[in-house]
Write a structure and sequence with these properties.
It holds the Pfam family SecG. With 76 residues, the chain is an all-alpha fold. It has helices spanning 2-22, 29-35, 38-42, 50-75. Helix 1 runs antiparallel to helix 4. The relative contact order is 0.19.
Length: 76
């Protein structure tokens, strides 16, 4: 059981890294570097399409990573 959970944790970790790297930055490009976080203060834009899916998958994988880490720590 411990080996299965450990392998599952490694797979979830790799998937989480891949999903985070696939997401675009909040302030992409030179305009984002100049304006900084001012755009977020004025109005928050909702993610659409693939960005929304990647955001939800990131949350699910993050929670799964946390739970699996606790399970692995319990078995050690």
């Amino acid at each position: 059981m411990q080996a299965f959970v450990s392998v599952l944790l490694v797979v979830v970790s790799i998937l989480l890294i891949a999903v985070v790297l696939l997401q675009s930055g909040r302030s992409a490009g030179l305009a984002g570097a100049i304006s900084g976080g001012a755009e977020q203060m004025v109005g928050k834009q909702k993610a659409r399409g693939l960005e929304a899916v990647l955001s939800k998958v990131t949350v699910v994988l993050g929670v799964l990573f946390f739970v699996l880490t606790l399970v692995v720590a319990y078995y050690i």
